[in-house]
Amino acid sequence: MGDGKTKPTEHAVAAFLAAVEPPAKRADGEVLEALFRKVTGEAPRMWGPSIVGYGEYNTVYDSGRKVSCARVGFSPRKAKHSLYIECKCGDAASDSEYEALLGKLGKHAQGQGGCLYVNKLADIDLGVLEQMVALGWKTSFVRYPD
To answer: pLDDT-based confidence at 135, cuts 50/70/90?
Structure first.
């Protein structure tokens, strides 16, 4: 999400979610949208063609390149859902809370930069996911206070 290529768009989130295939992934996407909206209190926004993001921060890389990113988000994909929840901020308490939540989440794989992959929502504990989204939202303001 933070590679500078994925930018916010004016595309409608509802239209994107309505077009997700197969129907089971579409239903999961709608559940994720409600969960992320509840936790963040923000309306979703499309980032690129397939990421539903909440909030926004700006950062500058060491190279001087400036990018905008969603604070948290998800993408309901055919193979696996991508969940963008960067919870680590260098604070020992938050980092250990994140690791503990990961252990309780259920079946998932980890990518880079706070990306989690989940095949279907039935594989995970949605209560734990809600806690993780809340932690990711909170720590994003610690890391990127703008």
So the answer is: very high
Residue-wise pLDDT for 13-53, tens only, equals: 999 999 999 999 999 999 999 999 999 999 999 999 999 99
pLDDT > 70? residue 4 = no
Domain boundaries, the chain: 13-143
Q: How many CB atoms lie within 10 A of CB 10?
A: 6
Strands, sheet with 51-54, edge to edge from the N-terminal-most edge strand: 45-47, 51-54, 72-75, 81-84, 115-118, 109-110
Beta bridge partners of 53: 45, 73
Give me the half-sphere count of Cα atoms (radius 13 Å) on the Cβ side of residue 136.
29
C-alpha span between 101 and 103 (Å, rounded): 5
pLDDT-derived band of residue 94, with 50, 70 and 90 as boundaries? confident
CATH of 13-143, one of 1.10.10, 2.40.50, 1.20.950, 3.90.1150: 3.90.1150
List CB contacts of 40: < 8 A, sequence separation 6 or more: 54, 55, 71, 72, 133, 137
